[in-house]
Specification:
The complex is a heterodimer of chains A (about 240) and B (about 550).
Chain A: E1 2-10, E2 17-26, E3 31-35, H1 42-49, E4 57-62, E5 65-66, H2 71-76, E6 78-81, H3 93-103, H4 108-121, H5 137-149, E7 155-159, H6 167-182, E8 186-190, H7 194-200, E9 203-208, E10 211-216, H8 218-221, H9 229-237
Parallel strand pairs in A: 3-8, 3-9, 6-7, 7-8
Antiparallel strand pairs in A: 1-2, 1-4, 4-5, 9-10
Helix pairs in contact in A: 3-5, 4-5
Chain B: H1 3-16, H2 18-27, H3 29-66, H4 72-98, H5 103-107, H6 113-146, H7 151-163, H8 166-184, H9 189-213, H10 221-230, H11 234-239, H12 245-254, H13 257-291, H14 312-326, H15 328-350, H16 358-369, H17 374-389, H18 405-410, H19 415-445, H20 449-476, H21 485-489, H22 493-518, H23 523-553
Helix pairs in contact in B: 1-6, 2-3, 3-6, 4-6, 4-8, 4-9, 4-12, 6-7, 6-13, 7-12, 8-9, 8-13, 9-15, 12-13, 14-15, 14-19, 15-19, 17-19, 17-20, 17-22, 19-20, 19-23, 20-22, 20-23, 22-23
Classes of the chains: A alpha/beta (about 240), B mainly alpha (about 550).
Chain lengths: ~240, ~550
């Protein structure tokens, strides 16, 4: 479903690589958690997958389509939730969702069904007719998530999707992620909430300083005993030994 | 709806706040009336400029009719509009196409980059129509009424006005795309955007002057003048060299039948011929340039960390400067006066045709006429103050905070102190502009030290209340909700109002000075009156700013 091969990226062709020769295969029916410390290269990788940033070297294919050679078809196969809430504040929620449905070619019946489903799920039906400007942080996140999922893409790319969501919405989104995978589709998401990754993900990838330092199921990542994901993460990224005052 | 139309609808809706207006109409009438009131104030404020321009055009029409070329006003209107759009279009295009906040969102959607380019180009084009209308409508009506033209003339005029901004914007788009592709390959991105666009601005300026200076080969100057005066469109063609499409517009509107259609056809063809290749090029290189801003500037050089402290006013002052210098759209719109003022005033030093600009010659001859009298100092200071007014930083200082306003509201620094820091930063930009322009003026006009100093000091004093008016306008009603920094500074009516307030101060001081000069008042009385007026305005402004800052801080929402 998602294939990343030898992908590298350095900003402004600098010497420091933000992403350094990473390779990953994310399979259909899988929830893949992408973890890493701040500045490790998670968002850069996700932006390259989403076709937002150009790739310096390597290839990324989504559902068989190369994101650089066939970007339109690759993007049609995914729903992307960015880590920012930069959204058109002066539109209403429903106008935003209708725009997304237009650009993804969602039919009239399908968009009605899908938009209603997500508005109900996130308890946003009342707010949908109001300008996004009046929304809270969490409401903006809900409308962005709804927009990313309404065309029912086989691959979800979610960058910190739980940020700003209330516990109920976060729980519903996690359930939706599980249902999506049950249909044989894929979820690739980044998070700093290790408990969520631990409970939700089939496999986990950890990136540090631009390199993938570990990939596998939680059991595969455990070197010995019954370590928590937090311990594994701190051990692998070398953050556990640091002392902060 | 097709992807492109949906995208265009979204951009127009968001840019012009149509949904917000509809929502306010239904649910928030108070906000709607505020917007309508503001629009009326702006229309009224702009009305005086429309009146002045129309008056100038009607006088020019009378003069041109004596030379048997009444259609010259169409050339002048089209050329002026085209050049303003050409020179400043580059900043609009950079802001809307490359430095917008929705770049990441649009890049992630399954839409061709040429469609994104086209939708944004149309958006900028729509934003330029008020400028095209401002410059074209008065001459079109004056000439049309004088020549008793029919409905076809007005239809053709509408087409010409719609086409007028296309060529200048296409040139700006092409230059911007090339610049942003260079930027995407460099490390110091923001710096290169700022320097690059200023260089492009100056290159356009020089290129246009070169175009204007061309004299056809194989003809002496006398032959040339005879040719100009003998031919029906001689004067139009000669004056229209400054912006060639203006000649076609003039001919399309002043001729009839095949000649009119032919010239309109030229205009349409040129617009299409310019636009289509640039649009096709955009499908290859637009996104690369647009997403360049999303990539952080990673520097390999480690900077020494400093922990120096400053007073609250200085912190705000320094912070304003840092953000302006590090945000290309802010830097370009705030600091452009520091470049344009001196370049314009130094044009005679470049010699040749650069010194032949008729407006500049008129200004210089006006200044020269007064020798070293007080009037000369006043005219110089008026011109310097006018350049200092073209400072978008001061009247967008709170708007630029956007959704970061909470920082100002949450820090334990009095609103008055914050306002003082912001005022100082904006005023320092106006001051820099006035001083740089005065130095260029001193060189090109060979001003004596005394005249230069008096003019500069007087303009510095006049700029203080002007800046106070600008910051008061912005703090009273800041535009805090914006999708990209361009909206905060370039598409902010507070900036226009601030400049209009500045122009009003200059006109009022000019009127007082003119009256006193007519009464043959002594220099002591003349300068004394001006200083008293400026001091009173400044004191009133400072008190108003302090009170307004305290009053509005509690209700401001970022």
């Amino acid at each position: 479903m998602l294939s990343i091969k030898n992908v590298s990226k350095s900003y402004a062709r600098g010497k420091v690589k933000a992403v350094d020769d990473i390779s990953l295969e994310v399979r259909p029916g899988e929830i893949f958690g992408f973890l890493g410390p701040n500045g490790a290269g998670k968002t850069t990788t996700i932006k390259m997958i989403a076709g937002v940033l150009p790739i310096d070297s390597g290839t990324i294919t989504i559902n068989g389509c190369d994101i650089e050679k066939d970007p339109i078809n690759a993007k049609l196969s995914m729903g992307y939730v960015p880590d920012t809430h930069d959204i058109y504040d002066r539109l209403t929620g429903i106008e935003y969702l209708n725009f997304i449905a237009d650009v993804y070619g969602v039919s009239r019946e399908e968009r009605k069904r899908s938009i209603e489903k997500y508005l109900d799920m996130f308890d946003m039906k009342q707010a949908a007719g109001q300008p996004i400007k009046s929304y809270s942080h969490g409401m903006k996140q809900k409308i962005i998530v709804a927009g990313a999922l309404l065309h029912n893409p086989p691959l979800w790319i979610l960058d910190e999707p739980m940020t700003g969501l209330d516990p109920k919405a976060a729980h519903l989104l996690k359930e939706e992620m599980n249902r999506h995978c049950e249909k044989g589709y894929t979820v690739f998401f980044s998070t700093h909430i290790l408990e969520v990754a631990e409970r939700l993900c089939h496999r986990i990838g950890i990136i540090n300083k631009g390199k993938i330092i570990a990939v596998g199921t939680l059991d595969e990542l455990r070197s010995s005993g019954d370590e928590s994901l937090e311990s594994i993460f701190l051990e692998l990224t070398g953050e556990g030994s640091e002392t902060h005052e | 709806m097709s992807k492109f139309l949906s995208l265009l609808k979204l951009q127009i809706n968001s840019r012009f706040g149509l949904s917000m207006a509809r929502y306010n109409f239904r649910h928030n009438r108070k906000e709607l009336w505020k917007t309508i009131g503001m629009a009326l104030i702006i229309i009224f404020a702009l009305g005086q400029f429309v009146f002045l321009y129309t008056y100038m055009m009607s006088k020019l029409h009378e003069a041109a009719r004596l030379m048997n070329s009444p259609q010259l006003i169409l050339t002048m209107g089209a050329a002026a509009g085209g050049l303003v759009i050409l020179f400043f279009g580059i900043f609009y295009i950079l802001g809307a196409l490359f430095l917008a906040r929705d770049t990441e969102f649009l890049a992630s959607l399954p839409i061709r980059q040429s469609s994104v380019f086209l939708s944004k180009f149309i958006l900028v084009l729509m934003g330029e129509y008020p400028i095209a209308l401002f410059f074209m409508l008065p001459p079109v009506i004056i000439y049309g009424t004088g020549a008793q033209k029919g409905i076809l003339y007005y239809i053709a005029a509408l087409i010409c006005i719609l086409l007028l901004p296309i060529v200048p914007l296409v040139i700006s788009s092409l230059l911007s795309m090339v610049l942003m592709n260079v930027v995407s390959r460099s490390r110091r991105r923001d710096l290169i955007i700022i320097i690059g666009s200023l260089v492009l601005f100056l290159a356009l300026f020089a290129g246009q002057n070169f175009l204007f200076s061309r004299i056809p080969e194989n003809s002496s100057e006398m032959e040339l003048y005879l040719k100009i005066l003998q031919s029906r469109d001689g004067l139009v063609e000669w004056s229209g060299r400054i912006f060639p499409p203006s000649v076609w517009i003039t001919k399309a509107l002043s001729h009839t039948g095949a000649e009119a259609i032919k010239n309109l056809g030229y205009l349409i063809l040129l617009s299409a011929a310019c636009f289509v290749p640039v649009w096709m090029l955009s499908s290859l290189i637009y996104q690369r340039g647009a997403t360049a801003q999303l990539e952080a500037e990673k520097k390999t050089v480690r900077k020494e960390l400093t922990y120096k402290g400053s007073s609250p006013v200085m912190v705000i002052f320094k912070n304003e400067w840092k953000i302006i210098l590090r945000t290309p759209v802010y830097a370009l719109n705030s600091l452009i006066g520091i470049i344009v003022g001196p370049v314009l005033m130094a044009m005679p030093l470049f010699g040749g045709t650069f010194a032949q600009d008729p407006d500049l010659q008129a200004l210089f001859s006006l200044i020269d006429r007064f020798g070293s009298s007080s009037a000369r100092v006043l005219i110089i200071s008026g011109v310097l103050t006018l350049f200092g007014c073209f400072n978008a930083a001061i009247s967008s200082t709170y708007s630029r905070e956007g959704n970061s306003l909470w920082i100002l509201k949450s820090i334990p620094v009095k609103p008055q102190v914050q306002a003082a820091g912001k005022l100082m930063a904006g005023y320092s930009i106006s001051l820099l502009c006035a001083v740089a322009t005065s130095l260029a003026m001193a060189l090109s006009l060979r001003l004596s030290f005394g005249v230069w100093l008096s003019g500069t000091v007087l303009s510095a004093a006049a700029l203080f209340p002007v800046c106070l008016a600008g910051i008061l306008i912005d703090i009273a009603r800041p535009k805090l909700n914006w999708n990209n920094p361009t909206e905060a500074i370039k598409q902010n009516m507070n900036v226009v109002l601030g400049m209009l307030a500045g122009a009003t101060v200059i006109v009022a001081l000019g009127a007082v000075s003119y009256g006193l000069l007519r009464l043959q008042a002594s220099p002591v009385l003349l300068y004394g009156a001006i200083v008293v007026i400026l001091a009173a305005l400044s004191a009133a402004g400072v008190i108003a700013l302090g009170k307004t800052a305290v009053r509005v801080y509690s209700r401001l929402e970022g």
